[in-house]
Amino acid sequence: MTVRLRPELGALPSRLQRLPIDARGYPVPWFVAWEDGRPEFRAMDPNKFRRAVRDRLCWVCGDQLGRYVTFVAGPMCGINRTSSEPPCHGDCAEWSARNCPFLSRPRMVRREDGLPNLDALRDNVAGIMLDRNPGVAMLWTTRAYRVFNDGRGNPLLRMGDPTRVEWFAEGRRATRDEVETSITSGLPFLLDVAEQQDRDDPRAQAVAELHRKYQAFEQWVPVLAT
Q: Which of 32, 33, 191, 194 can bridge 206 by disulfide, Cβ–Cβ 3.0-4.6 Å?
């Protein structure tokens, strides 16, 4: 039986039309892990992560990327210019930001009940995980990125200078107030981490570096408050 796309979802870009549709009517992104023949949206396939980075493939549709790539992330990733997920095509990224339940619904909480090997999955997350829904989705378009080690043997991606930064919330363009609210709620976590780094090594100057990064990032916050 053919499963139809949920009627409230936007029309799929041509690349996403080749993705399988799950029993609820959601397209299954290329990166999703499968368990017992079913997609587990809360887990990525590590083999596809390696392929995406090695072969420059879109994280959402799996096709070859072009010169420009778009990262889908929260504002804390923009401040640090760091992502734990490979980039996408611009249209794949925007469709996801407008339609993915977790990205488009600020109050949605990521469920972990019934998730197999939960502790192992958390341990394998690169960097320091900020376990929250940021309330807005940031689309960071750039021509460059590189892979680096998070210090625990896991890969992270350093996002290059952006050519464009867009913001979405609730399936539409986000307002400045929404973006600033997300930044205000997430920044204390980064500050706590930086303060701990300075306590461990006074030469690190992590707090000063965080302030520098934040000031550089402010130019990408939407101008209008409407």
A: 194
Q: Cβ(90)–Cβ(164) under 8 Å? A: no
Quick check: 128 pLDDT over 50?
A: no
Please list, in sequence order, all residues whose beta carbon lies within 8 angstroms of the beta carbon of residue 199, skipping any fewer than 6 positions away. Answer: none
Environment class of residue 132 by beta-carbon count within 10 Å: exposed (0-12), middle (13-18) or buried (19+)?
middle
* Euclidean distance between CA atoms 25 and 97, whole angstroms: 17
d(CA 104, CA 101): 5
A 10 A CB-CB count for 18 gives: 12
* Residue 110 pLDDT: 47
Structure token digits, residue 98: 């407008």
Domain spans, the chain? 14-174
- H or E element: which one contains 206? helix 206-217
Which pLDDT does position 134 carry in this prediction? 83
How many CA within 13 A on the CB side of residue 36?
Answer: 2
Residue 176: strand, helix, or coil: helix
Please say whether the beta carbons of 97 and 163 come within 8 A: no
At residue 178, what are phi and psi to the nearest 5 degrees?
Answer: -65, -40
Dist. CA 136–CA 78, nearest whole Å = 12
Per the CB < 8 A criterion, the answer to whether 40 and 34 are in contact is: yes
pLDDT: which is higher, 176 or 101 = 176
Cβ–Cβ < 8 Å for 67, 142:
no
| CB-side neighbour CA atoms (13 Å) of 102 | 12
Q: Which residues partner with 21 through β-bridges? A: 27
Q: What is the pTM of this model?
A: 0.86
